[in-house]
Amino acid sequence: MENHEETKVDLKDRVVGQSNTTEEPAVQVRSLKELLDRVTGRDVKTQRLPEESGLAEILPFPFLALVGQPEMKLALLLSLINPAIGGVLLIGPRGTGKTTAVRSLTELLPEVPRSLCYYGCLPEDIESGGQNAVCPDCARKFAEGEQLFKMDKVRLVELPLNAGLEDVIGGVDERAAIQNRFRMHKGLLAQADHNILYVDEVNLLQDEVVDALLDAAAQGKYTVRRGPIAATYHSRFVLIGSMNPEEGNLRPQILDRFGLRVIVRGLEAHEERLEAYRRVQSYIAQPRHIVEQFSLETEIAQAEIQAARNILPEVKLTDEVANDGLRLISDLHVDSLRAEITLFEAARAHAAGDNRYTVTHEDLRVVAPMALRLRRSKFIKEFFELQNSEDAELSVMLESVISTT
What residue spans define the domains of the chain? Predict the structure, then answer.
């Protein structure tokens, strides 16, 4: 932890200017939140276009170049710091930057332990379930002191809307089957292990795909059976979804799996809309130039996220703050226990992102709207009211019958 704290100091001593190539005055950055505030109002510089080479290059729009939408950006960053939050659901009309924001996370993603095994075995599996919890090859390697993992950057895995069930969970490797060998190939859920799984238009997914997604998200693993063979894959991922409510509602089962829920509205201020237009045009004309303008801030933000993940296990939630959070949930009449899990884990992530080791009431205040909205059900409320009435009637009848015997 001492080495980590030194890293945090070094990062915050670095400066952020208008770009890497300009001579604009630089400013010190003290926290991840301050970094977001600094870059939100920055002007984007333009330059003369070089001669086109004809080569295609995919450069995501810089996350820190997104204009406005502070709640959406904060929710996505918190999910990177603490996967226990349960992911993020972005709800809003078309053209509000939901997909762009998610895809722009690629340069901010932290590093995680990546299994060297085809089946995703990790030392933590042995710690929790013994050597029988991993494949025989990994059990041998662990006994001999060989490394089971390497540190690798989190990846963004996208689940296409037209993906079939076999694409999602995997199936028999057809190339191996031609040679009379049976081998399973991984599906998208297995590829998403220790990664981010992004589902655009999540409300339009096929029911069988939704069911597989729910099972994997709940268990952290899933089993595929095809005739005489079966394979079990780890599937521990951060689920990020986006949807347009005009196109239909989301099934309650999958809505409950998303930790933070963000309502993404269009930019209202004319200045912000104009700045967003200018940045998009600059990106379309010369993506590398705008990426370079935000490269230093992106590097610092990525390091801050990694540092926040490192201190997260030591961030404490006091009883006073926890009881206030539970009182808030009770007053809102939220039944799902996932409400406090998301609320408290998001508050811990918010504190870690500010390099603090204790959750405060301010952390709760910031994350509560994202963690608790869309958790109350009118149907369930009416169901309980009807059930209470029926139970009261049954109680009166029981008393009447018992008193006459």
Answer: 378-405
